[in-house]
């Protein structure tokens, strides 16, 4: 007698949903890492520009060059501000995807526990049937020996 769980397709579906949620979370975390890496690159660019401005100011330099460098510095600062927003948004997405994955895992666990419970009931039923069959055989044997 084989165990067949009537809701096995639902258990499989919940497993697939959890797997998909893991993939989506992994993708969101990759996007967050990309945004953080880009932000780090902007900080390095700004630091390099600051060092260059410090080096250039020790020499005689035209005002137009200084204004150009300052304008570029302001542009980099604006990019950094935007990138901070992108990082915050990516962190928010990661949190949402983590919550979604958590829900999927709980859902899968509920259905897996239900399957496990049904399997245990099935095993108990099979064990009882086997015991009943053994008892019947022992009773028949005893009856034959006593006549």
TrEMBL record:
Gene3D superfamilies recorded: 1.10.287.1700
- Protein's cellular compartments: Cell membrane
GO BP annotations listed: bacterial-type flagellum organization; bacterial-type flagellum-dependent cell motility; chemotaxis; protein transport
Q: Which InterPro entries match?
A: Flag_assembly_chemotaxis_eff, Flagell_FliJ
What does UniProt give as GO cellular component? bacterial-type flagellum; plasma membrane
Q: Which UniProt keywords apply?
A: Bacterial flagellum biogenesis, Bacterial flagellum protein export, Cell membrane, Cell projection, Chemotaxis, Cilium, Flagellum, Membrane, Protein transport, Transport
Question: What domain of life?
Answer: Bacteria
Q: What is its main location?
A: membrane
Q: How does it sit in the membrane?
A: Peripheral membrane protein
Q: Which family does it belong to?
A: Belongs to the FliJ family.
Q: What is this protein called?
A: Flagellar FliJ protein
Q: Which organism is it from?
A: Paenibacillus ferrarius
């Amino acid at each position: 007698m084989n165990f067949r769980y009537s809701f096995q397709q639902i258990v499989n579906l919940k497993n697939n949903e959890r797997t998909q949620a893991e993939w989506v979370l992994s993708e969101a975390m990759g996007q967050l890492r990309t945004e953080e890496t880009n932000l780090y690159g902007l900080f390095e660019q700004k630091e390099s520009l600051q060092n260059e401005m410090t080096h250039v100011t020790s020499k005689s330099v035209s005002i137009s060059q200084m204004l150009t460098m300052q304008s570029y510095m302001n542009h980099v600062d604006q990019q950094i501000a935007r990138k901070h927003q992108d990082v915050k948004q990516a962190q928010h997405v990661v949190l949402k995807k983590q919550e979604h994955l958590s829900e999927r895992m709980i859902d899968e666990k509920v259905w897996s526990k239900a399957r496990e419970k049904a399997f245990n009931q099935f095993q108990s039923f099979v064990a009882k049937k086997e015991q009943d069959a053994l008892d019947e055989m022992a009773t028949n044997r005893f009856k034959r020996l006593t006549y």
